[in-house]
Please model this.
Amino acid sequence: MMTEIDALKIAAGQEVAVDLMRPADAPGVAALFRAVYGQKYPVETYYQPQELVAANQDGRIISSVARTPKGDIVGHNAMYRIAPCPKVYEGGAGLVLPAYRNTAKLLTRMIAMGLQAVPEFGGEGVFGEAVCNHLHTQKAAVTLGNIPMGLEVELMPAEVYQAEKSAPGRVSSLAGFQTIKPYPHAVHLPQAYEDALRFLYEGLAEPRQMETSTQAPPAERRSRLAAEIYDYAQVTRITAWETGWDLIAALEPLEIEAAAQGVAVFQIWLPLSSPWVGWAADVLRGRGYFLGGLLPRWFDEDGLLMQRLRHVPDWNAIQLLSERSQEIARLVRRDWEAARSVRMS
Model:
């Protein structure tokens, strides 16, 4: 079994084949993660060969690897389920051993391998988070057709990148999407974000029937929220399956619990299928939440990402590749400034 020490000694320049992960590759994947991240990578599955094999067998994770003729694993990327809709996979967990980072398009080839496998497991869209402390993953995403749809501000702690010293502070992620199987449907656009969302939809290569959200929720409607706290990242993600007049009452206990556990970043996902999503967005803006972006197919129908931080972000640290991503950052920052002024008034 290859250890992390062995991984660091693998000679550069060997031929590398890109393939879907085989069970025998799993210990090498774990060693690769230790070589690059130490024990700091936030998803424990990649350090546990048996768990990783099981997840690949049932389609929760689709791992692609870069393998030398001797069987050494020098690269990895994954597609995995994270959205409320199981038809949406996220691409991530991409890393390459330092000695192989100049190998032509190695990360891009692994991502492409995973994209080819997604339909076999019922996937109809792929979501991606490209880190913004450098441009490498953003370049790979563009090459593979991933369209920027939002900016998750200071999503990840600097500690994750400590081994490579590539981030002095928390790291933002550019959220993107790629359609595998089109699903035309109707969406409701909050008035506060109508222009921003129409801009984001220009990048989506499939039709939507758009209506402006002007309704309030029915009197009997109650909120149904579910929260997950990611301790390692100091992030909570709240899924708003339903929103009603009790939205603040339903949200406050989740926020209090998250804050007590040291959460720094609050995210909430709203369904754009709801005719009163604009009302819900306005309520959240009054609590300091601001625009994150568009989440195509997130609930099967599309979703809206909103976010709130307990600190002032370092906007100048965010590196962005394209004009579209830079415009997204401007829209997000403008709404952050508006939300901040509301909370300070």
